[in-house]
Design goal:
Blueprint: H1 5-29, E1 36-38, E2 49-51, H2 52-72, E3 75-78, E4 92-100, H3 102-107, E5 113-120, E6 125-132, E7 137-142, E8 146-149, E9 152-153, E10 165-169, H4 180-193, E11 198-202, H5 207-216, E12 220-224, H6 235-248, E13 275-278, H7 281-295
Parallel strand pairs: 3-4, 10-11, 10-12
Antiparallel strand pairs: 1-2, 4-5, 5-6, 6-7, 7-8, 8-9, 12-13
Helix pairs in contact: 1-2, 5-6
Length: 296
Amino acid sequence: MKLSDTQFESLYEAAMSAARKAGEHIQRKVGEHRETNRKEGGSSLASQVVTEVDLESQEIVLDCLSSSVEEYSLGILTEESEDDSSRLNSDYFWCIDPLDGTLPFVEGTPGYSVSISLVDRSGIPVIGVVYDPAGNEMFHAASGIGSFRENVSIADPGELGGGTELSWFMDRSMKSVPEYEKVVADMEELAVATGHSGLRIVDHAGAALNGVWVASQSPAIYFKLPKAKKGGGSFWDFAASACFVSEWGRPPADIHGDLLDLNRPGSTFMNEKGVLYSSHAELSDAIIKWYRDGYS
């Protein structure tokens, strides 16, 4: 099924409306006492923690998008429900993380968001929406339209270097990788080698915001290394931000430089090949070389 321009715009608006409505609900719940439970997930704590607010946000998003699912025969993949494989049998599917960054949310610190993407059957995200409730900011993009922070188009990153700091957006799980201190030292060297004054580490947010911030706060990098244990984020952690940075001109890849596959059969986890976002091709090339020649 090929969506008309009008249909596509309607789905784009629906995703933004759903993300904002769910995000406003999440923000009202910040600081309230709540029970934190564990679910079967990846190897990191962030992938296992779930609260009732995750489930409430998911219910809000699904309610907002239910009419589009029926009208356009869309599949659904969402973090807090079992993968029913509808994503594999539909021309498009909604890929939803109703509360990305549950740990900062529980702690009452910024870094959590609502992430919604429309992904086609081949695994390419064509709509991406990440709403930051704490900052009341909407990051959104759609295929052929561009990437926006609220209503402002994200500017081209310009030339690399120039004496500015390189921002490294990092999930907390990065701190548990083998030889973490050496990884930090290597990234500090990489920053200087690519013309930057130093390295700024930002490690308080979930994957969705880390991804969009690579574009909105360039020069920047964000990556997750391959690992044997399942985890490394899932499709819903990256689909919306992948659309955002792709429309900006820098599609994310795995640690080997191949484009992300966000609709492969089987596991939705990304641990086998990792994930790599960067504001400049030179940064991606440098990190891929670092991983190939040294870290791995």
